[in-house]
């Protein structure tokens, strides 16, 4: 009897799907540098998304026309009305840019009379061109790198086949696109890990982003990120809205990004998640040329690059209301830029290096004092180490509020107070290099802030605030001034209460002393053994 042929099983879970796609995508790496490889893969995922969205809308239009009693010829004349797609936030996808056409020609197009054959890479490049021509909002966004010599055309075709086979039958096109969004985010995370330090330029760990989002609860108005990377803050905001049964249309997204490739990733990421983000027409330096000069935000979420030494500094910049930032470090430039963007009643969450909480170099201490005295700081959170693969620098989050009175995002008047949270003991190790925050960790942090603030979410959950030694403390401005305006949570929260084990203190001291002296004796014995062994060798 001939041996049975082993049939490959289709991915049955989201994790299996993402892992399968990643392994397949990884085969394309070849001789590409990491940034080009990233663009190749993410561009394909985006192309799959826009085509799926287009096909879904096309079927909706067909069903509507059939319901109106139109015949096939009439439907054929009306189904290609571009406005019926773009008016619903769906990109127009021309025939040769559609995924079905590319999948059918994954091995390339044979030569027509008088013409050269076309590789799949060339077909994809042409599809990207057509998409950008037909949809001006995508201008200068999509990668055109698929027909280069260092792109393995056979493996590119195989990856196209694999993406094409991921048909989430029975779930519907919308569900399929949601999953593609997850795949895009998963790939961003994997690329960030693979690129090490540079990966931090475009990716902020999801747990850190969720801390900002869950604390701020951005559910309306304008949401801004001045260094938006690949758009993770906006995507997490959209997920927050979805989790709370609110419409994404409740917010308007504004962002700016310095790096061209990262700006492209952000544009694609937002499109996949159905967010119409205003990321300006081009990439650019936020300090040198603010592309949203008159915009006032209800919420700002940001993870600026830490401790930038070379930045576009002008001493006369009107943003430096609380002091001119030092030329050698842009941390307080980012902070003041963000504060300048807050509308009355606006609030912000910013990831910073821990040194920002206590540094006095270059006048930073004076700026921090001015921020505290202006009653702009609402909460400081010290985060655990190793949350970022890209840097070993310990990080914290600053939260600002233009209005801390009752009724402004809360029911408790916190004027003249700052909440300090020391979350350094939270989290769990994913592997030797990376720590992650669990849902419970994030809920504990956000719940503590909401209880302190008296927000509706805290009231609904019956949360009340009380100082917790070792974790949370509500300090007055006078206490912060007495600490020379240092904002390190550990200075304020104190030590956690130690449970009394019932052993009398005198007996405990005697017992621990005896154990310590016994360990000293053992150390001396082992040292003598080592000396003896070394003497024999020498």
Automatic annotation (TrEMBL):
* The entry's keywords: Methyltransferase, Restriction system, S-adenosyl-L-methionine, Transferase
Q: What class of enzyme is it?
A: transferase
Pfam family for this entry, one: HsdM_N
What the entry lists under SUPFAM superfamilies is as follows:
S-adenosyl-L-methionine-dependent methyltransferases
Q: What is its EC number?
A: 2.1.1.72
Reactions it catalyzes: a 2'-deoxyadenosine in DNA + S-adenosyl-L-methionine = an N(6)-methyl-2'-deoxyadenosine in DNA + S-adenosyl-L-homocysteine + H(+)
* GO MF term (any one): DNA binding
Instruction: Fetch the Gene3D superfamilies from UniProt.
Output: 1.20.1260.30, Vaccinia Virus protein VP39 (3.40.50.150)
Q: Which domain of life is it from?
A: Bacteria
Set out the biological process GO terms recorded for this chain's protein.
Answer: DNA restriction-modification system; methylation
Q: Does the keyword Transferase apply?
A: yes
Residue ranges annotated for the DNA methylase adenine-specific domain, each copy included: 176-501
Q: Which residues form the N6 adenine-specific DNA methyltransferase N-terminal domain?
A: 17-161
Q: Which PANTHER family did the record assign? A: TYPE I RESTRICTION ENZYME HINDI METHYLASE SUBUNIT (PTHR42998:SF1), TYPE I RESTRICTION ENZYME HINDVIIP M PROTEIN-RELATED (PTHR42998)
The entry assigns this protein to a family as follows: Belongs to the N(4)/N(6)-methyltransferase family.
Provide the protein name.
site-specific DNA-methyltransferase (adenine-specific)
Source organism per entry reads Cryobacterium tepidiphilum
């Amino acid at each position: 009897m001939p041996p049975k042929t082993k049939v490959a099983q289709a991915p049955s879970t989201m994790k299996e799907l993402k892992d399968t796609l990643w392994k397949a995508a990884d085969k394309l790496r070849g001789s590409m540098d990491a940034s080009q490889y990233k663009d190749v893969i993410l561009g394909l995922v985006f192309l799959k998304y826009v085509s799926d969205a287009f096909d879904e809308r096309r079927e909706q239009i067909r069903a509507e026309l059939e319901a109106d009693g139109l015949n096939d010829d009439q439907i054929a004349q009306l189904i290609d009305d571009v406005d019926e797609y773009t008016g619903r936030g769906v990109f127009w996808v021309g025939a040769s840019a559609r995924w079905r056409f590319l999948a059918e020609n994954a091995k390339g197009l044979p030569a027509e009379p008088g013409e050269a054959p076309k590789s799949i890479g060339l077909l994809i490049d042409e599809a990207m061109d057509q998409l950008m021509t037909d949809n001006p909002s995508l201008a200068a966004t999509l990668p055109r790198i698929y027909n280069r010599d260092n792109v393995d055309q056979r493996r590119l075709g195989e990856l196209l086949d694999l993406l094409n086979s991921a048909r989430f039958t029975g779930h519907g096109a919308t569900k399929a696109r949601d999953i593609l969004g997850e795949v895009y985010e998963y790939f961003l995370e994997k690329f960030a890990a693979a690129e090490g330090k540079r990966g931090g330029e475009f990716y902020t760990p999801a747990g850190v982003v969720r801390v900002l989002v869950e604390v701020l609860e951005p559910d309306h108005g304008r949401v801004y990120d001045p260094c938006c990377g690949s758009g993770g803050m906006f995507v997490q905001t959209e997920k927050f809205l979805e989790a709370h049964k609110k419409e994404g249309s409740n917010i308007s997204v504004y962002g700016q990004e310095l790096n061209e490739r990262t700006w492209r990733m952000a544009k694609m990421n937002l499109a996949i998640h159905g967010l119409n983000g205003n990321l300006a027409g081009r990439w650019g330096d936020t300090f040198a040329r603010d592309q949203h000069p008159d915009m006032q935000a209800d919420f700002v979420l940001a993870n600026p690059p830490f401790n930038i030494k070379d930045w576009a500094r002008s001493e006369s910049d009107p943003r430096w209301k609380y002091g001119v930032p030092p030329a050698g470090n842009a941390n307080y430039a980012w902070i003041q830029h963000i504060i300048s963007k807050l509308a009355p009643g606006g609030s912000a969450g910013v990831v910073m290096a821990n040194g920002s909480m206590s540094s006095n170099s270059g006048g930073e201490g004076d700026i921090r004092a001015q921020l505290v005295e202006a009653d702009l700081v609402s909460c400081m959170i010290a985060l655990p180490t190793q949350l970022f693969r890209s840097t070993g620098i310990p990080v914290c989050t600053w939260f600002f509020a233009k209005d801390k009175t009752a009724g402004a995002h809360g029911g408790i008047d916190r004027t003249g107070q700052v909440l300090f949270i020391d979350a350094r003991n939270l989290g769990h190790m994913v592997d030797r290099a990376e720590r992650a925050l669990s849902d419970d960790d994030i809920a504990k942090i956000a719940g503590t802030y909401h209880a302190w603030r008296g927000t509706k979410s805290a009231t609904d959950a019956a949360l009340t605030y009380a100082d917790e030694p070792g974790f949370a403390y509500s300090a007055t401005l006078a206490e912060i001034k007495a600490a020379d305006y240092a904002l390190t949570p550990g200075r304020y929260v104190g030590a956690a209460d130690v449970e009394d084990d019932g052993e009398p203190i005198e007996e405990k001291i005697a017992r621990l002393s005896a154990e310590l002296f016994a360990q000293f004796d053992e150390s001396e014995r082992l040292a003598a053994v080592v000396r003896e062994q070394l003497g024999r060798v020498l």
